[in-house]
Specification:
alpha/beta; Cathepsin B, Chain A; eleven-stranded antiparallel beta sheet
Length: about 675
Amino acid sequence: MKRIFSLFLMVLIATSFVDAQPVSEQAAMLVAQQFAVSGPVSCRSVSRDQISVTLSYTAKTGRLNDFYVFNYGDENGFVIVSADLRTKQSVLAYSDQGSFDDEFIPSNVEKVLASYQEQIEAVRHNRAGAAVQSGHNGVPEVIVKPLITTVWDQDPPFNLLCPIDKETGLRSLTGCMATAMAQTMNYWEWPASGQGLHFNTRDTTLCVNFDESVYDWDNMIEDYSLGGTAEQEAAVQRLMYDCGIAINTTYGSSASAAYLSDVQKAIITYFDYASSAKMIQHKDCESEWDNILKQELDAGRLILYGGYTLDRTIGHAFICDGYDSQDYFHYNFGWNGYCDGFYLSSAIDLKEIDVNFSSNMLAVIGIVPDYDDTCRDGDGIFELYGDYAVFRGIIHAYDSVRVLTIPEKAVIDGKTYPVGIIETYSFFCNKYISGLLIPASVYQIGDYAFYGCSRLKEVVVPPSLVYLNGGIFGSCNNMEHLSVSLGNPHFDSRNNCNAIIETKTDRLVQGCNYTVVPDGVVTIGANAFEAFDGIVTVCLPGSVINIELEAYYGCSSLKNVFLHDGIEAVGASAFEGCTSLKDIYSYAKTPPQIQSSTFPEGCTVHVMPGFGDKYRADYFWRGFNIVEDLNPDPTAVIPVPDDGQPRYYDLKGNPASYGSKGLRIGNGRKYYLN
C-alpha cells in the first residue's frame, strides 16, 4: 500500500504546473482516499468501496486554494490536504475521530490553520525557497499515543464559576489558556491544594486565596458531555476558575484571553510545579523545535503549546500530548474533543523561507510537579549545559536565605564546572533575599529569575554578562541601586542611571523605581519597568523613539505619561495594568503607533490644538477621550534629586537645565523623572 500511495503522488507531481505547483480538488480527493486506506484513521478497517470521502472545506487566499479538508464517513475523522506541492507533506493534519465543520472553527484551531495558509502563501512568493514535496512518506506510526483522554470544554459546566460578561449578560468562557492548564494539572493530579493569594491584574475584583482551594481530582471525569454529578461538576469548576484567575484572564462570553507566559508563572507560584517549567520560542530553537517536543513527550510530559500574533494582541493555546513517526504532533484543543488530531508543527520547512509569520509559536515545557521537598538551606540545583553549570536556585529555603551568593563553580559527576547561567524563574517572588552577589562566571540570567524579590536593594551585574531580558528584576520595589560593572562590553549603566542598557543598541533593558533614563537611550525594552509601584510619571528624553511591549506593565501607581514629538511606537500592553493611569500627554504631531492593549481603557489623551483629528482618525487612538489642550511650546521641567547629573527634560523630551523655583507640571505637583 505504501508503494501504491507513493506512485500515485509521483504521478500527481509530474502532472502539476511547474511554477504554481497547485493541487486540484480532484487530486486532493485522491490523496484523501489513499490516506484513508493506508493511513492511521479509523476508517482504514472499512473496505475501499465503503469509504465515504467528502469535501468539507477549502481554505483560500484570494483566488488560490491553500488546502482542503475532507471528512471520512460519519464521524470517522478528517484529513487536511495541501493545495500546494511545496509543503513538507501532502497531508497537513489528520484525525481518527469526529468530523470537520467549517461553520464552527474554534479560535485556537483557526490560528493553526491560518499559520498553514500564511506559510503556503509565503512559498508562493519565494519560488527559490521550498523544495517540492516527495509526497507522504509512508504510513505514519504513532510513537507516543495521546497522553490525556480528557475532552473538556470552555462552556457549561466548566465555566459556571467564571464571571458574567457585563456587555452581554452571559457567563464568560473559561478560555483556551485556562482549559489547557487545567487539563495539564488534571493529568498530574497535582497539587492537592494551592498556595498564596492572587488578584486578577486585569480585573482586580476577582481574587483567589489558593490556600483555601482543595482540588478533588477523584471527582474530575474525562468527559462531561453526558453530564456529571454535582460533585464532579463542582470539582472541575473550581479548578478551571482558579487557573483562570491565576493567569490574569480577561473574561468574555465570546472569548476569554490570557498569556502563555502567565501560565508558566502561575503553575510554579501557586500550584507547586517544578521550576523546570519554562517557555521556549520557535524562533530561538527553530532547527531543534520538533526534537524538543518529542523529548518532552517521550518523558511523559505534556506541552502547553501556543502562539500570538506579532503584536501579541491575539493568542491561542492547546495541549500537545503525542506524536507519530512522520513528525505529526497530537493536539488537544480543549473543545470537547473537536478537531483533536495529529498536525504538522509547520506546513513548510521554515528554514527555507525568509519571512516573519503572524503565528509566533511558543511552548511551555518541563511541566512536572515539584515533588522533591528535600532541599536544604544553601543547597542549589545544577545541570550541565555544555561546559557550564546552570544554577536553578534555592527552591524551598525561602524562610532562611537573606544574602544570596551565587557560587562561581559547581561539582557535577565529580568534575568542576563554572556556573554560567542562572535559570529562568530561579528566585521568582522570593520575599526574603535582601542581598545578591553574582560571580564573574555568569554570562546569562534567565527571564524573571529575580522577579518579585521585594527586599532586594542592590544588584551589580558582572562584566561577564552577555544575555538578559527585561523583567529579570521586575517588581523589586525596594531596589535602590542597579548597575553594570565597568568593562562589560555588552551592557552599561551610563550616567549612574540605575538601569541596565544594551550598549550597542542604546536599548534600556531593565530599570527600577529610581531609574533616570539618560539622553541617548533609543528604546525602552520589553518589561523594562514591569510592576514597579514607585513610578508616578513617565517622561522620557527626546532620544527615545520606541517603547516596547509590556515596558511599564503593572505599574500600579503610574498616573501620567508624557510622549514627546519623537516617539514613533508604543508596544502592546506597554502600560496595561497601570490601574492609576488617567492622563496621556502627547506632543507627537503624528500619532505614535499603538495597539488596542497599549493603554488602559478610559484614559484622556491630551494633544496640541489642531492635531486632535489625526488622533481621532487613528484606529487605536480614537477609542480614548481626546482633548486639544496642550501648550505647543511647554517650558515646564521635571525636577529630580540633585546629584550633579544633567537629567532634566522639558515636556518635548529635550534636555533642559534645572528650572527656576516654582516651575511645575500642569496640576502644580512635582514628579520624579523615571
